[in-house]
Amino acid sequence: MSFSSFSLHANLLKAISNMGFEHPTPIQRLAIAPLLEGRDVMASAVTGSGKTAAFLLPVLHRLIEKPRGTTRALILAPTRELAAQITEHLHDLAAHTPLKGAAVYGGVSMAPQESAFRKGVDVLIATPGRLLDHLQYPYARLGGIEHLILDEADRMLDMGFLPDIRRILQRVPKQRQTLLFSATLPAPIVELAGEMLQNPVSLNVERKAAPATGITHVAYPVPHELKSTLFLELVRTSASKHVLAFTRTKHRADRLAGFLEKHGVTCTRIHGNRSQAQRTEALASFKRGRCRVLVATDIAARGIDVEALGLVVNFDVPPLPEDYIHRVGRTGRKQATGDAYTLVSPHEEDSLRAIERGIGARLPRQKVQGFNYATAPTERFEVPIAERITAIRARKAEERVRAKANAARRATQGITAGPAGNGTAGQRTRSYRPAGPSRWAGKPVTGQSFRRPVAARSNGKSV
Ligand code: AMP
Questions:
Q1: How far apart are the CA of 275 and the centre of ligand 1, in A?
Q2: Given ligand 1 and candidates 203, 305, 334, which is best to mutate, with the most ligand atoms within 8 Å of its CB?
Q3: Nearest C-alpha to atom 5 of ligand 1 is from which residue?
Q4: Which amino acids bring their CB within 6 angstroms of ligand 1?
Q5: What whole-number distance in Å separates Cα of residue 191 and Cα of residue 179?
Q6: Which residues pair with 343 in a beta bridge?
Q7: pLDDT tens column, 279-330
Q8: What is the rounded CA–CA span in Å between residue 80 and residue 365?
């Protein structure tokens, strides 16, 4: 089967061919035709299956002949990285059409996003939290939406976005085409689909959640404290140009990155404590080959799409089978091959067995030849949280003493202190003043404060 068997616009077929897509993937084969007919679709498709083009192509086809200037398609994604990834994919697929897409996510300025709303960019790709931030202002209108797509819906629910999704649904027309893509279809997703979709076509490309084919999976049992040295050994002996490593926490990601750098391995990291600019830069330098290893935590790593990613390492065993599938789905893409290694300490064996049950396969256990499993670690990898808190408190106490001494010195020298700087006292507030008529400039239309508390936007998970 070829793409030309769908009645897709010639300019989309041209882009598909330029991108080197020869045949539709299974999800594309199943989803494109009903989507072109305007049907609602609920699809279970894992990352790496070609799901993004499966929903973008029919939507772009249906928008091509429409007049410009109205946002007609809204794609909701759980993370900034995924939203950026979809936007990039859209840009490539729409290269020979006048259609434009814009990403709307947090951590970057709201002004260009406001401008995209005002221009009525054809497709908006948004994370729920930042979209709701915009929806407080009159320029953010979703009344023209004809296509609503929820991508990685299971992850959005895991991240506590369900209330946000419900609020967004109230702002889009009821008469629309709705698509729900999810790696897994647990009960809450099916329930949400029941509320959102009208007479949907259900597509289960992979009935049992399973990692993409073409990946060689290996588990390396290792004492917890030797993980970093074993990892270094695996990186040194791997032929893969790009290595993506996942850690359980932000602290462990920082520690692993520091350890690798100390041992001469070029490395960068992305996680929830890093600014959007830092994350974008990290991903760009990894993609350009300036760093061999990218260390990431789960949520931040969604949407990482790097050509020829030969090796993914679970430095820590992921908590759920779905996370395992998503992590290792970063290699072996486009029917290519890749390796997925999982370092397993004795207390992680149970989690690994749960993953094996989830994916319906046992991972072969292997030992690295020549690696000394009996050696004592030369340094401590992880600093326990209590110790880190004590160190932070000590540093802050020291800063306070120093500030007091400075203030006393300035007082004796007759220097008056200036106004307190940003965030030195009280709560720091961020405000956004949208462009446009002063009638409402800067005032959220709902009258509520501009920034909703983080807890209201997610379940507080920060990785
Ligand atoms: P996705 O599952 O949408 O994240 O896509 C995974 C990767 O597969 C992306 O790098 C796409 O560019 C690529 N891809 C999507 N469709 C095809 C296709 N029909 N043939 C080859 N590669 C594809």
A1: 28
A2: 334
A3: 50
A4: 21, 24-25, 28, 47-53, 305, 333-334
A5: 14
A6: 220
A7: 888 988 888 889 999 999 876 666 666 666 789 999 999 887 878 887 887 6
A8: 35
Instruction: Tell me what percent of the residues of the chain surpass a pLDDT of 90.
Output: 51
| Terminal C-alpha separation, the chain | 41
Classify each residue of 392-416 as buried b or exposed e, where b means 16 or more C-beta atoms within 10 Å of its C-beta.
eeeeeeeeeeeeeeeeeeeeeeeee
| Residue in 18, 48, 53, 17 with CA at minimum distance from that of residue 35 | 53
Backbone angles phi, psi at 410, to 5 degrees: -65, -40
Distance in Å, CA 24 to ligand 1 centroid? 9
> What whole-number distance in Å separates Cα of residue 228 and Cα of residue 252?
10
The residue with tokens 């990039």 is 88
Ligand 1 center to 334 CA (angstroms): 6
Query: What domains can you pick out in the chain, each with its CATH number?
Result: 3-203 (3.40.50.300), 215-379 (3.40.50.300)
Ligand 1 closest atom vs CA 47: 2
Summarised one tens digit per residue, pLDDT across range 110-131 is: 999 999 999 999 999 999 999 9
Nearest Cα to Cα of residue 81 among 293, 270, 321, 313: 270
199 sits in the region (left: phi over 0; alpha: psi -120 to 50; else beta) called: left
The number of the ligand 1 atom at minimal distance from the alpha carbon of 92 is 12
Q: Distance between CA atoms of 406 and 397, rounded to whole angstroms?
A: 14
In single-letter form, the type of residue at position 157 comes to: L
